[in-house]
What we know:
309 residues; alpha/beta; 12 helices
Amino acid sequence: xxxxxxxxxxxxxxxxxxxxxxxxxxxxxxxxxxxxxxxxxxxxxxxxxxxxxxxxxxxxxxxxxxxxxxxxxxxxxxxxxxxxxxxxxxxxxxxxxxxxxxxxxxxxxxxxxxxxxxxxxxxxxxxxxxxxxxxxxxxxxxxxxxxxxxxxxxxxxxxxxxxxxxxxxxxxxxxxxxxxxxxxxxxxxxxxxxxxxxxxxxxxxxxxxxxxxxxxxxxxxxxxxxxxxxxxxxxxxxxxxxxxxxxxxxxxxxxxxxxxxxxxxxxxxxxxxxxxxxxxxxxxxxxxxxxxxxxxxxxxxxxxxxxxx
Length: 309
C-alpha cells in the first residue's frame, strides 16, 4: 500500500520547513541517520537544498531566517528532494552526501555506513581523556567506515598518529575523501584489514564502532538502514560475532596501559550475556549510559585467563 503525502510547498523558508515536517510525518519515513524526528530532518533538507548553512538561526532566534522568501523554483526543488527521500527510503545523508558529527562535516555516500557514532561525543568533550596515558601516541579506529572517527581523534589529540582500518575497500575510498577534506593526510593512515590482522599495533587507544546488530533486529530494520552496507551492521545471531574476535585478539595489539572504546548501540543485554566476566566502564553519551563502553587491556587479559581455566 502506498502512503499518501503532500510535498512541501511555500513562499518562505519557515513554510517549507513546516510543510516538509508534515510531509515526512505523513510518509512514515525512518530516522536515525543524523536526525531523530521529522522536524529536524525537514530543516536539514530544506536548508541544504537552499544552500543555507545548516546552523542557520530559526524561529525565535536573532536574525532568524524563517521569513526569508523563496522562489517558486526553489520551492519545487525542495519538493523534488523530499519526494526522492520518501520514494527511495535512503537516509538523507546519502542524498546530500554530507553528514555532521559534533559540528564537523563529512562526505558520505552509499559505499559506507552513515556516520553517527556516539564515540564522537566522547572525543569532543574529553570524556575518555582521564583513561589515557600521557604516553598515548598511537590510535586505531577499527571499522572506520567513512573515516569520521579517525579524523575526529586526530583533531582531538594533535600529538597522536591515527590509523583508520576497515575491511571494505569501498568504505576506505570514502574515508580517503574525508582525510583529504580535513587536511589530515600526514596524521591519518588508512589500512584495509579484517579485524586486527593487518594492524597489529601495539596501540595505546583503540576506537571501534563495529557491526553489532543482532539477527532478529536486522530482520526488522527500517528501509533506511537496509540502504546501508549490511557488512557494517550485521553482527550475527546475538550481534557479538565481531566483538568476540576483537576481544580475543586485542590484548596482543595493545600497549600495557591501553584502552578500547567500543560502541554497541542497543545491544547491552547481549553484550553482558556474551561477556559476563568482563569488567567494563559504561560511558555517558546523549543516548544514555549503555551505548558505549570502555575496557582496559588488563581486564581483557584477566577475562582470557578466567576462560582458560
